[in-house]
Amino acid sequence: MGTPDFAVPSLKALHASGHTIALVVTRPDRPKGRGRKVFPPPIKTQALNLGLDTIQPKSLRTQEFEDHVVSLKPDFLIVVAFGHILKESILSLPRIGTINVHASLLPKYRGPAPINWAIINGENLTGVTTMLMDKGLDTGDILLTAKEAITAEDTAETLHDRLAVIGSGVLVKTLEAIANETIHPTAQDHSQATYAPLLSKHDGHIDWEKPAETLEPFIRGMTPWPGAFTFHGNKRLKIFKAKPIAKDFEEPPGTVLKSFADELQIATANGALSLLEIQGPSGKRLLIKDFLRGYNIPPGTILI
Question: What share of the chain is helix, strand, coil (3-state, %, to 5)?
Fold first, then answer.
């Protein structure tokens, strides 16, 4: 049971390791982009390439769906970035259990956006956890974990891609350990739990009242989606890369500071943020020096 790109390596690893995948369940095809063309979920594309039976129910809350799963007599349900909350009656359908692959070291960063928030919050370590699902949100017993460093260059995209592959390996090891009876589920310490809420488009709006050292990982954590952005007048500027710099100034946060002609430095609550890659009204992602050749933002301008 999975939907986006994050789930694809896990499906491929399950298939390659010789497990019998009786059914793939994913979400319905959805329209995307300006043209609103309908596209299948990445898991559907991969499942069909592997010749696997695939269904896309509009609802999991039907007796028909549960009867279908029961008829397959599954040992496990494997859930990877599926996008549905599963009710207890579904979680209890498999003979052995329902396993989830989650992109954090639980109990930290429960919820739908653990990769983004780990970067935004300046963490230097994260990982993947397999757990037995229960009725709570990422509250089930931990099976296996794998740690992964967050580098100073990581965006949500680069870390996502690494954790997706790591998660697939942890999943296969988890199933092997269960088969060999060498795994011992461990209850989470709920007092240490933190939450990683779902992000929306407006969450990427840069707050210049925050320190530069905070805004730099914020930008990386928002890349590629929902994207970090600010406004020059009514023009939206999307920021892809920046670096904090030590600089003395008296201007209020959000002010464009005096700098070299090929630089764009913005005042923050503490220090300045030098913007390195940006996308303006042209719609092209550019190095700041190339952007400034065709777009003038004089010192003293206030970005909001």
Answer: 30, 25, 45
pLDDT for 163 beyond 90: yes
**The pLDDT of residue 283:** 85
pTM of the complete model: 0.95
The amino acid occupying position 123 is: E
CA-CA distance, 167 to 14, in Å (whole number)? 11
Query: CATH number of 201-294: 3.10.25.10, 3.30.70.100, 3.40.50.620, 2.40.128.90?
Result: 3.10.25.10
Region of 181 on the Ramachandran plot (φ > 0 left; ψ -120 to 50 alpha; else beta): left
Same fold, 5-192 and 201-294: no
- H or E stretch including 165? helix 156-179
Contact (CB, 8 A) for 258 and 296: no
Would you list the domain boundaries of the chain?
Answer: 5-192, 201-294
Strand pairing category for 54-55 and 24-25: parallel
Per residue in 224-276, pLDDT (tens digit) is: 999 999 999 999 999 999 999 999 999 999 999 999 999 999 999 999 999 99
Instruction: Please check whether residue 91 is in contact with residue 140, taking contact to mean a CB–CB distance below 8 angstroms.
Output: no
The first and second tokens of residue 194, run together, are 């933190």
User: 5-192 — its CATH code?
Assistant: 3.40.50.170
